[in-house]
Amino acid sequence: MGKTTGFLEYQREENNEIKPEERVKNFAWFRVPLGKEEREMQGARCMNCGVPFCQSAMVLHGMVTGCPLHNLIPEWNDQIYHGHFRHALSRLCKTNNFPEFTGRVCPALCEKACTNGEYGEPVTIRDNELYLIENAFKEGLIRPSIPAVRSGRRVAVIGSGPSGLAAADQLNHRGHLVTVYEREEEPGGLLMYGIPNMKLDKDVVRRRVALMKKEGVRFRCGVNVGKDKDITPKWLEENYDAVILACGSKKPRPLAAADPAKVKGVYYAVDFLTSTTKALMLAEDRTAAALKKQGGFISAEGKHVVIVGGGDTGNDCIGTSIREGCASVTALEMMKEAPHERAADNPWPEWPKVVRTDYGHEEAIALFGLDPRVYETTVKQVQTDEKGNLKAVTTVKVKFENRKMVEVAGSEKTMPCELLLIAAGFIGCEDYVSDAFGLKRTARGTVSLGSDSYETGHPKVFTAGDMHRGQSLVVWAIAEGRNCAAAVDTYLMGYTGL
Fold first, then answer.
1. 13 exposed, middle or buried (CB, 10 Å; 0-12, 13-18, 19+)?
2. N or C, fewer C-beta in 10 Å, the chain?
3. Distance in angstroms (rounded) separating the CA atoms of residues 176 and 392
């Protein structure tokens, strides 16, 4: 696929980025796509390797490398190289319902498994994917596809994050009548409220939801299944032929040293990010000045910010805090700093266990002159003023012995902090949803009869996404939604074409 010698003739060229000093002035998308000819060259770099690990999703040493959606990457790279963008789009959309999401927020497991990456630079698979779908929207190639025949079967999807949307999209195109219930004001779940605008603009989510509505999917927002008295589990089971729970893994992992309910200035990361997103929805534009004028959100302006957690959410908190005008930002990570280059015991195509400097880290380095991450460290205790407002934190170095974290004696340090954000991950779905349906949870806080089963043990009720799998990536959520839809379709029809 692509050009056999393309990887020798053309260098990897990623989408351009607006400089950190400029992009932090607003919450807008900051990556600038390449032109058509440059994109064709990047498609040409796909080397017809014969064994495309990029689409494998193999588990090597406990970590996945390659695309969980098994995208037909060499096929659409070849079409890009030849300038056949319509054909490339058809191959892309065959396996991925929402390339506009994964093309923006996926960490590109595919590129980590690209054969070119063994000795050189991998193909720009994620950028190629994003170009295809955005060019398709621009050229009017994405149009509503309304099923010609309806099955008469009714399916309720609870939760409109990436897994819920993917399941709804699949089942709707199969001809079933799908209604999606969402407790927030707008559909999108994590996509709408958990990922910052500069990483995924909300108009991108709205565009896809609008398309799904035209295709026949119904959305009912402001409905909190499990708490609302009108839309109860019993009512759903009586009025629908199947119910899918795609409610996410939203129970945050607590920090022993600081309880957000007891200390003013301590928040869970998603609550912080959500408050900013909701304020931006009401602001005149996506600038930091407009956000400040709007108000009504958890602000980092003028504050020393400390973030506990070094994952994607922690990075998003860094970028958001900087745009809000924080005085400083520090990110604490309990684990050791990873190598900056692949180690001998971490060969290709394994997931590269190396330090990744993301957009938020780049911005902190540009504005404050140093990487905000501090490794093998956590918060031991917090200090407040006479009114109970956070004013400082005491950090401590940690190490792991027999998989247990222990503090390093005498390593305590005190640093100013008026805003402490807990981005330490999630420990499962919220109890009230599974309790309302009478479902048991696993030790991980998920609802699952096993990784390959989307049934819950309760008649008619299925589960997908983080609620089924545990906290994971958007690309995994889409894969989960698709797989769950196939299971539901089989349950409804006795077979499936999904």
1. middle
2. C
3. 55
- pLDDT mean values, one per 10 residues, the chain (498 residues): 87 97 97 96 92 94 95 96 96 98 97 95 98 97 96 98 98 98 97 96 98 98 95 96 97 94 96 97 93 95 97 97 98 94 93 95 98 97 94 96 91 98 95 94 91 91 96 96 98 95
pLDDT at 21: 97
**Residue 107: its pLDDT value, please?**
95
Tokens of 193: 């409220």
One-letter-per-residue 3-state SS of the chain: CCCCCHHHHCCCCCCEECCHHHHCCECCCCEECCCHHHHHHHHHCCCCCCCCHHHCCEEECCEEECCCCCCCHHHHHHHHHCCCHHHHHHHHHHHCCCHHHHHHHCCCHHHHCCHHHHCCCCCCHHHHHHHHHHHHHHCCCCCCCCCCCCCCCEEEEECCCHHHHHHHHHHHHHCCEEEEEECCCCCCCHHHHHCCCCCCCHHHHHHHHHHHHHCCCEEEECCCCCCCCCCCHHHHHHHCCEEEECCCCCCECCECCECCCCCECEEEHHHHHHHHHHHHHHCCCCEHHHHHHHCCCCCCCCCEEEEECCCHHHHHHHHHHHHCCCCEEEEEECCCCCCCCCCCCCCCCCCCCCCCCCHHHHHHHHHHCCCCEEECEEEEEEEECCCCEEEEEEEEEEEEECCEEEECCCCCEEEECCEEEECCCECCCCHHHHHHCCCCCCCCCCCCCCCCCCECCCCCEEECCHHHHCCCCHHHHHHHHHHHHHHHHHHHHCCCCC
Strands in 242-245's sheet, in edge-to-edge order, are 218-221, 177-182, 154-158, 242-245, 461-463
The predicted pLDDT at position 214 comes to: 98
The answer, as to whether pTM is greater than 0.90, is yes
For position 1, what pLDDT does the model report? 65
How far is 161 from 184, CA to CA, in rounded Å?
11
